[in-house]
What does this fold into?
Amino acid sequence: MKRSRHLFLLYLLALCAMRAEAQPQGDPLFLTIKSLDAKLFDAYNHCDLTTLGAMVSDDLEFYHDQTGLSVGKAPFLAAIKQNICGKVQRELLPQTLEVYPLKGYGAVEIGIHRFHHPSHPEEGMGDAKFITLWQNKDGTWRVTRVISYEHNQGLLVK
It folds into this structure.
């Protein structure tokens, strides 16, 4: 199990290092992933755990630079309920969004997102970078792996 996680991380890092051509912003895959991201984080921002749960795989692996690895849908949803609901909202910085196809699997989404308190959206809590792996299985897209990193106040992108 550990070996497969390490191989997965190495694969994602190699993919990013290769800097393959991202899908153009008008490309159908780019538009699909952008729409899925919006739906996922609308659920996140409104504590809609039912929608959020339907959009992530049962074996979700979530790597976070400050909290480490979380495996499984249930721990992910519990962490959202305890730590996010009513406390934090997320917005994608649209100019940072990159989408890359993964043949026979789905897509990789890369970008930067900004976090803020729901009652003070003008006051950013900080930005973070992310890599999300989306699987398209039988026409249904789900998040299977996430790496969220470089959480800090100093990154705030204008």
Remarks:
- The longest helix spans residues 28-45.
- The chain is about 35% helix and 40% strand.
